[in-house]
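Lay summary. Proteins are chains of building blocks that fold into shapes, and those shapes determine what they do. In this project we predict the shape from the chain. Here is one chain we studied, written as its sequence of building blocks.
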Amino acid sequence: METSQEYYNSEELLPSCWKDDVRMNLLFSSFRNKEVNPQGWTDKMTFWTSLILKWNKLSKSATFSLHNLNMVFQRNGQVPQCLNIVLEEMKRQGQIQSLNNFIFENQRKTWFNWGADLLIRKPIRWGLNLLLSAVRWSNPTNEVFVNVMFLKGMADQVLNRCQNQIVSEWTDSILSEVELWQKCKDICPLMKTFELVLMILDKQNHLRILQHPDKEEKVIRFQSRKTNLSSSVSELEVGILNLKQVKHKLEENIEKLQEDYKGLRDEAQLAVRDKQKNKAANLLRKKKITELSMEKKQKTLENIEELLHRLQEADSENMLLKGYQTGVQILKSMFDGDLSVSNIDTTLMDLEEVLQNETEIREAMSKPFVGVSDYDTEELEVELDELLKGEQEDLTHLNKNQVNSEEELSTLITVKKHGISWPEIPTTPQEEESIIVHNKPVMLN
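And here is the predicted shape, written in a compact code that computers can read:
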């Protein structure tokens, strides 16, 4: 079984209790009857389940077997004796699935295959699984399981990566399986796991896994507007694939030539320092040949890149032209009907006439009523003068009263300054009667 161990270390994977011999001896032992100690059984199952799922994530491996887990979790030469029960429980809860069942359920089927699976293969598979589980012929150590949820998460990441890298549907929507895997190797480093990821995306109709018509390799076509997703690979697509493969090989050759060029130059410098003139001259000739070959391949690579770029531009220009055509049709539909120059002129003339009538009506409404100017304005002015004169007399009388009030207030203040005081507030009925009778200010001694 293919696994990847370069993405994690044991310290990151293993829990802190891994060094506790007493604790780990208990966890490595076989499961006892759950009814005897339900809590202990649950804690042990939870420990191994979470550790297996954590290993899937760190190793970026969605497929595994019992044998893989025994090798990963080996401790002091001992392997866990309980993982078979753990895998059965995870399988029952739907956390993992056998690889055979996963492939069977995720294959894209035609109507004929669907009928054959429903009426023939599925009943036979069910009967064989039942028979094998009854007589225990199968080898549980080598059975491969799939972490379905983790695999679907990988599929989502691969789809997002590929969709973001599509610049042109002509050149980027079809590529070889190996090329696609190289682009997504950091997400899914194992090729076998990557094939399962593509199977999920194929079933979800995001892509199709096709066969190259001229080579023994798989071709991946993503959903696009250019071609039918399930149609066979066209000649244009084959040409694009060949250009991209040549481009990839040229890049690899140029990279190798650059390394050779640098090595020959360093060796020539070393030969000069060692005074090996003939060797230095031979190395310089090789360096020159390598440089010429590198320039030639670089020029070819630039031509291929230019051709692919022109294809992308043609796709963009085609989309732009279709956009212009759509816009023209929309504008034409808007101009259809009553929208014309003559209709616009007629409407503006009608609007001007209506505005002129509205102005005349407003001026007519602002004129005074008939007969208002016949009143005697001199008589009205005399009456107004009399009203103003009476108002002035009232104002003068009010000012005089205010002056008298101010004088009385001043007299009271003066009396207070000379020692005059008022009687105290009565507290008994007798005092109140005496004050009423003799209501006069009393001089203070």
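What the prediction tells us: The CA atoms of residues 34 and 42 lie 8 Å apart.
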